[in-house]
Amino acid sequence: MSSADAPEVVVVGLGPVGITLCNLLASQGIRVEGVDAASEVYSLPRAIGMDHEVMRIFQSIGATDALAETIGDYRPSEYRSAQGVLLRRFESPPEPYPLAWPPYLTFLQPQLERVLRENATRFPNLTLRTGLELVELKDPHKPILTLRDKATGEIARRAPRFVVGCDGGNSFVRRSFDIGFEDLDFHEPWLVVDMIVEDEHAQLPQTNIQFCSPARPHTYVVGPERLRRWEFMILPGENADEVNRETRIWELLSPWLRQDQARLWRSATYTFHALVAERWRIGNVFLAGDACHMMPPFLAQGMVQGVKDTANLSWKLAHALRGGSERLLDTYEAERRPLVREIIEITKRLGRVICELDPEKARTRDAELIEAMAAGQGVQVRQNLFPPIRHGLVGHGANGSLSPGAGEPCPQPWVVGPGGRARLDDVLPSGFIVLFAGDFDAPPALLGRAQEMGVAAYRIAQNPSERASLTEEDGLLANWLSARGACAVLVRPDHVAFGTAADVHQAEGLLHELRSGLAA
Length: 520
Hints:
The chain is an alpha/beta fold. It is built from 14 helices and 28 strands. Helices cover about 30% and strands about 30% of the residues.
C-alpha cells in the first residue's frame, strides 16, 4: 500500500458506531480504513431506539433516504405498577421538531448497519474490511496494528496517524493499553426478545411500557412495522440459558400472545452494565461507543451516545489531520466523558425504579409516583432529561459561566432559500458557522473576522426578506435565540452550539474565544 493510499485513520469495529465514524471521516476527505473481525453484521437483538441528533448525523453523511424503510415511530413510554396503574410517562415534543427529525425513532439495527455499510461505498477514500481481526496494537503515540485475515491467516500491518477502537465492551483496543472501567454499580441480567406479530388482531399495547412489577420487571417496545420487543429481568437464582429457551419465552409472553399470533424472530440474554472507561484517549488511540461506556437500556441511550461520540470526535480528527492543533483532541474526552457519565447516572436511577424486587419497597415507590402524577409532575419530555456539553470547546461569558445555549444542539429548522425548501444543514457548508437572526445587522468588520477564521455567516429570517440568506418556516431558531437572550449563535461542525451572542461585542468575543480554543 503506497503512502498516498495508506489510511490516516483506522477504525476498529464496524458496528453502528464504527461504521458511522467511517462515513463521517470519509465525508470530510479523510482516508479511512474500517476493519471488523466478524464477516457479517451481528444479527441478535441490540439497540432499537435512536434520537433526532443521531438522525441529523446520518443526514450529514447522506444516509437518511436509504434508512427510511428501517425506522419507525417511537411511542410514548409509560411506567406502570404491577396492578397496571400509571406511575410515570415520557413524551416527545410535538412538531415543529427542533432538529427537523422526530425526536425519537425506532429502528432495526442489522438493517441500519447494512445501510450504513452500503452508504460507505460512496466514498473512494474509505475502505471496509471484514473478517480481519486485530491481533496486536503497539505504541499509542505512533500506532502500529497487526491484522490477521480469519479466512486465510494472512497477516497485514497498518501504521495510521490515528486509531479509534469502536470494538465493543470487550474492546481489544482498550485492553491493549490496560485502560480500566469506572464501575457505576449496575449489573442486571435481562432477556431480550424480538417478535414479528402476524395476527393484526392481537391485543397489544399501543405505547411502550415499563412494567414495574417486583415479581419480574419487564419492558414492552413497539418497534417498526410488525416488530414488538419484550425485555424480561432474569431473577436471582434463574439460569440465563434456561430463560432463553423457546418454551420458556412463550411462557413469559403468554399474557400477550398465543403462539399462532407471532413468530419468534430472535432472542438473547445480556447483563446490563453501568461503566465508563477511565481514559478515552491514549496518545493517538481513541475509544468510542461501548468500548468506553456501557449503560442500562432504560432510556435507549447506549447506541445513541456511541454515535454522538463519533460526531464529536470525527471533526476534531479531521482538524488535526489538516494541520490544526492536536490539543483540540483532548476536548473529546473532556466533553463526552462527564456528559455520558451523567446520562448513565440518570438512566441508572430510572433503572433502579423499574428493577425494584422488594414488594414493600415497590408499594412505597408506587405511592410516591402516583402522588407525583396527581400533582402534575409525572409527565416529562424525554429530551429534557439530558444535559448539554459543559466542558471543553464551548463558549463562556465575561463572568466565566457558560454562554447561554452553549453545548446544546443548535436547532435545524426547515428553511426556504434560492434552492427551494430544505433542512437547514443541507444548505449550509460544513465547518464552523455563525447564524444571525433576521433583524440583526452584522457589521462588515464582524463578518470579515468570521471569514478570516473560515467561519461561514448566514442570516436566517422569520419572514421572506431580501436581506436574509434563508427564511425559516416555523421560527424555531428565532425562538431558541430569543429564549437565550441572543441574536446570533456560533455553531461547531458537529452542530453543537459553541455559544450565543446578544450583540456585536459578544459575537466578537465568541470568535476570539473560538480562535484561542482551536489554537491551544
